# Entry
Amino acid sequence: MASQGIVLDLPRWVRRRLNRLSRSTPNKTVFRRCQIVLQAAAGESPSASAAAMACSLSTVNRTRKAFRERGEASLIPKVSPGRPRKVTPAHEQALDRALAQEPREVGQDFSNWTAQNLAHSLKLAVHATTVLRHLWRLGWCWGRPVRRVASPDPRYRPKAKYLRRLERAAQRGVHHLYYEDEFDIALLPTLSGRWMRIGQQHRVDTPGQNQKQYGFGAANFVTGQLVWLTWPNKNNVGFRHLLKAILEQQVHDSRKIVVVVDNYRIHKTQAVKQLLARVRDRLRLYFLPTYSPQLNLMERVWRHFRRNVTDNFYFKTMRCLLQAVKAFLSKLAMTPDVILSLFSSA
# Structure
């Protein structure tokens, strides 16, 4: 046979290099080609080499011939380019730009992008799953947005800016700054995400008749000190008790206290105004812009409270619920660093 005439006379340094390559390569094709060439250099016949490498005689002959013609470059298999990509880098850039805009802003008649309408809009002849794969690679994911309350207060920006000034002054020690808010304590559990076995939706019991009490709380912006109390009603009486508790907490400090509150009506009653008039040299209220809960840092504390106490759990009696509330808030009051971390979280 013509293949019998293929003779490979390799220098010693080439054999050593092929031996090292065959031992180090993770590619079985490279290993087999190295061994076939080394066996040829050692005088092995093609049939013996085919038997030793468990391959066909044509593979041995083809490998020997390729090495003779192209040398060591023939040992490395060529990478197949495969089919041309249907989604090119230019298409990916178009996908990224499209998702960064609302569909109706670019003349579409729908409000939300989907993989299907993205492919149709950009004229991509690919399956929706392919579009999803490219979106994930571009850093996009499917999620649920949150509502943003747009404050109708015409002085929203100056008020928010002044609030930042109050915070900086508190950090310099000019005054004490507290964020205050109320929260509901209800037998009806609040619901949030939790672990569930696949295919089994967790069910949370509910009371036949809901019962409610209320909590009042305020935390120092600089120290994280928490003042709180529970009250049967969400009224100005409970709010005044909280203000008095804040004054007692700073009884030995002559610096003025600023309490940031929302525009709930109990903060503006005549009784509250009379109390503030008596302690005007020590305490004043700063009212947030209307409908701006995102500016009240105590909202984050109450979200933390709900996740740990009332979310997804049914307390059978109000007494049990109040015991859990008091235990949690008492522990939280002893860990001001947790409150400060909640204040600083985005």
About this structure: Residues 156-191+204-344 form a domain with the Nucleotidyltransferase; domain 5 fold (CATH 3.30.420.10). DSSP finds 13 helices and five strands in the chain.
